[in-house]
Amino acid sequence: MSCRAFGTVIEGLFIVLSIIWHKFAIMKDSPENKDSVLHILNLDNVNDDEHEFIPILTNEEEKKLNAEEIPAEIPILPLKNTVLFPGVVIPITVGRDKSIKLIKDAYSGNKTIGVIAQKSDSIEDPSFEDIHNIGTIAFIIKTIKMPDGSITAIIQGKRRFAITELTQKEPYLKAKVEAFEEILPEKGDEEFEAFVSSLKDVAFQIIKLSPNIPSETAIALKNIESNNFLINFISSNMSAQVAEKQKILEMPDLKKRAALLLITLNKEMQVLQLKNQIQSRVKEDLDKQQREYFLHQQIKTIQEELGGDTYGQLIKEYHKKAKTKKWNKNVKEVFEKEVQKLERMNPNAAEYSVLSNYLELLLELPWNEYTKDNFDLKAAEKILNHDHYGLEKVKERIISYLAVLKLKGDMKAPILCLAGPPGVGKTSLGKSMAAALGRKYIRVSLGGMHDEAEIRGHRKTYIGAMPGRIIQSLKKAKSSNPVFVLDEIDKIGRDFHGDPASALLEVLDPEQNKEFHDNFIEVEYDLSKVLFIATANNLEAINPALLDRMEIIDISGYTVEEKTQIAKQHLIPKQLKEHGVKKPQIKLSDELIETIVDNYTRESGVRNLEKKIAQVIRSVAKSIAVGEKYSTEIKVEQLDKILSPAHPRERYQGNDVAGVVTGLAWTPVGGDILFIEVSLSRGKGGLTLTGNLGEVMKESATIALEYLKSRAEDLFISYKAFEKWNIHIHVPEGATPKDGPSAGVSMLTALASAFTQRKVRKNLAMTGEITLRGNVLPVGGIKEKILAAKRAGIKEIMLPRDNKRDIDDIDPKYLADLKFVYVDKMRDLLEYALLDEFVKNPLKLDLAYAKETESQN
User: Do 151 and 100 touch, CB atoms closer than 8 A?
Assistant: First the structure.
């Protein structure tokens, strides 16, 4: 640097230091201020005649700095919160004893030191392990002793260096160093020039956005000739973390350094833009609130002059309604507190409507308000029998609940779950229960619900917050002990909004729901008197913890006889009323109804049956409306024309083909029969499974085949048959997914029949799970499967022995004309199921092997 430039730098920095002296008076000797940096660009009022002094390095001065030799050994000054860059002049304040001694010794000597940033600014006495390896050679321009004993030094960076060897720890750090060479871009590198131009543009925008940076800085940037010094100057003065600045310092390639600096500057600019936007928005909001406040005060004054105060009247109404409520002390205290808050709030504020809605909800909820139960058990039973045909278990459970409630008076309500296929009357049972008990009726559909707030509500801090469905329903019912139907509880969803099923655990737990917490009302509500009734089609889809809290009541499908009675007693009268047709105008015989059930519906419930009956009645209604002649008695032969051609359900198809067995399956819509078909073809013993089978059914097929191989001799099957014949197992209706363990016994019997070419016992259907040990395990859905067997014309059913207890629980009238065989071993199953009679034209498996052997010999 030239002497004239040296003098200018010292003169300008003395001006800076004199103003620092008057502005801050004294620097506190605290860990936060020691070795701190006073950035020239960040000082507000540091000026001389309203002009900022900013030292600038020319190209010639930069070349001289780079040409200077680096001392072999120099003292090392650790800095806490800054990074010194070559060519840049900064003031620093040192307060540590080691640092003060270092500055004094260096200033009295060659005035050259090594400046390196600390890795952590929390370390007061850093060692070599606590500082970075790359730093900057600095020249001490001037030192000033401060009143508190610290020293302020003006230093200028010269060149980068790297520590090669540590030579001294006391009284301060010393090290051998070497020059940290830079990689400069080629002359005329257009990409580098573009980086430099972009750096200037972004820097000018930051200066414009930041009120703390003096305008003279922009002039200084324009006058910087050296691209290298420009990058160092911007790096030194940007508002980045020490780690980011150190990363830039340690980058040898000037072009890459410029690219990294540009990224950092862009981040800083984005932060400044966002900060300015926020400040502008806050100012606008404050101005708007102030304006609204004054307008509100004017409105209030006008209303008082006119003799009316709408908001005051609202508060009075709240207090008047509160006197009639039967809430406890805690709820009363919350209400009074919120009313007082509302009185102090600006009615035009967004929170006013939320708080007002909250208070209205508290006043409308039926706190400790109950309807009187009907304890006439005979009348309740009469209502249940009138509304529903069958369902004896459910009716018995309701009557027993009423009986205990009549004796005890304050019994906790049970949590019932009615499980069964669609259309069997689960939901309508809730309405009948409410009528039998003399309670209010509420129904909430949970199907597709995926937000936990639907159950527990939203916190009222949000605009548009609402209570959960439970509290909303109780508000509509105006009673705290209604019959509450939670429909389709097995179809609850789950996503990032939470798990509604888990939220229901508190609702459906008799030990917890006495103090149910809704996020909106924020006070406990007693749900223990509510009779919750959940409905579900598939229990496996319900959260196990939730399932554990409910009392499960299975509602199976109806028999043809039951459906006929339901149609006569409920469905036909209902549809006649809905279609405006009088009873004498149409006659539906039992035979007609049974034909509709058998050939035109395929369900466990009666929902489709009701639709078909409605179609029949509509055909008569049309004739009546247009004045056509018609017969009041609908004939069976007319059904194909009215209802479209029938689709008869699967029926038993005989035992003339080997490898075909009738199995029984449970589905969400009731029981059904399925045919297990096994076909053998010449090959290498491969196994093919078709029919859209699930993993469990595939495993059952594998188990059945392996068991059959292990028992081949007992069934007089040659072991070579499994090596020379491919096996194809198919279950018809391939478009329908099928899974479950119930088909295990059917697959085993079908395989045994195919390999022995023996007939399967006639009119036999079976269900059960199998094991490799040869056991037959029990399965579920027995009633539904029996009903499916009856519909298909099956006469004999083979079941696992442990399922006998399920048969004992079924009404004997369902079991008429059916014979049951119970087995617990797979060998007993095959002994009974397979006849000694062979099918017509059986496969000659042994003969085929003999011909193969002859041809090989």
Answer: yes
For 156, list phi and psi in degrees, rounded to 5.
-125, 130
Catalytic one of 742, 746, 753, 790? 742
CA 606, CA 598: separation in Å to the nearest integer?
Answer: 12
Report residue 436 as tokens: 């039998």
What local confidence, expressed as pLDDT, does residue 851 receive?
Answer: 43
Do 806 and 785 contact (CB within 8 A), yes or no?
Answer: no
Are 422 and 436 spatial neighbours (Cβ–Cβ below 8 Å)?
Answer: no
CA of residue 420 relative to chain centroid, distance: 28
Over the chain, what is the mean pLDDT?
81
Residue 339 CA to its chain's centroid (Å): 37
Q: How far does Cα 469 stand from its chain's mean position?
A: 20
Catalytic residue among 80, 563, 612, 785: 785
Active site annotation includes 236: no
Spatial distance between the Cα atoms of 630 and 652, rounded to a whole number of angstroms: 38
Cα–Cα distance for residue pair 617/581, rounded to 1 Å = 8
Spatial strand order of the sheet with 483-487 comes to 441-445, 483-487, 531-536, 415-419, 551-554
Q: Which residues of the chain have pLDDT under 50?
A: 1-53, 847-854, 856-857
- What gap in Å lies between CA 623 and CA 631, rounded to an integer? 10
pLDDT at residue 820, as a whole number: 92
63, HSE (Cβ side, Cα atoms, 13 Å)? 4
Whether the CA torsion 821, 823, 826, 832 is positive or negative: it is: negative
Output the CA–CA distances (angstroms, integers) from residue 318 to 357, 359, 463, in the order listed. 11, 8, 22
Q: State residue 727's pLDDT score.
A: 92
Helix (H, G, I), strand (E, B) or coil at 484: strand
Residue that has been written with the tokens 């016994």 in this structure: 745
Report d(CA 778, CA 657) in Å as an integer.
28
Q: Is 785 assigned a catalytic role?
A: yes
Of 821, 661, 652, whose CA–CA distance to 749 is shortest?
A: 661
Alpha carbons 123 and 327: distance in angstroms, whole number? 61
Q: Kindly report, residue by residue over 515-536, the tens digit of the pLDDT.
A: 888 888 888 888 888 888 899 9
What is the helix (H) or strand (E) element at residue 164, kind and residue range? strand 151-168
DSSP letter (8 states) at residue 800: E
- Is the previous residue joined to 812 through a cis bond, with omega within 30 degrees of 0? no
Measured CA to CA, the distance from residue 235 to residue 233 in angstroms comes to 6
DSSP structural state of residue 37: B
How far is residue 843 CA from its own chain's centroid? Answer: 57
Q: Are 535 and 426 in contact (CB under 8 A)?
A: yes
- pLDDT, tens only, 733-789: 766 777 778 889 999 999 999 999 999 998 899 999 999 889 999 998 888 788 888
Residues with Cβ within 8 Å of 786's Cβ and at least 6 positions away in sequence, in order, are: 664, 671, 797, 810, 814, 815, 818
Given a contact cutoff of 8 angstroms between Cβ atoms, the answer to whether 66 and 105 are in contact is: no
Are 147 and 183 in contact, with CB atoms under 8 Å apart?
A: no
Partners of residue 166 on adjacent β-strands = 175
Structure tokens of 611?
Answer: 């639709």
* Cα separation, 500 vs 476, whole angstroms: 22
**553: β partners:** 418
Copy the structure tokens of residue 520.
């909106």
* Contact indicator for 534, 486 with CB cutoff of 8 Å: yes
Cβ-based neighbour number of residue 264 at 10 Å: 21
pLDDT digits (tens, 9 = 90+) for 652-677: 677 788 889 999 887 766 678 888 99
Identify residue 716 by its one-letter amino acid code.
Answer: F
Q: Provide the residue count of the chain.
A: 857
Q: Would you state the pLDDT for residue 308?
A: 55
Phi, psi (rounded to 5 degrees) for 483: -90, 115
Which of 843, 725, 856, 704 is CA-nearest to residue 776? 704
Contact 300, 310 (CB under 8 A): no
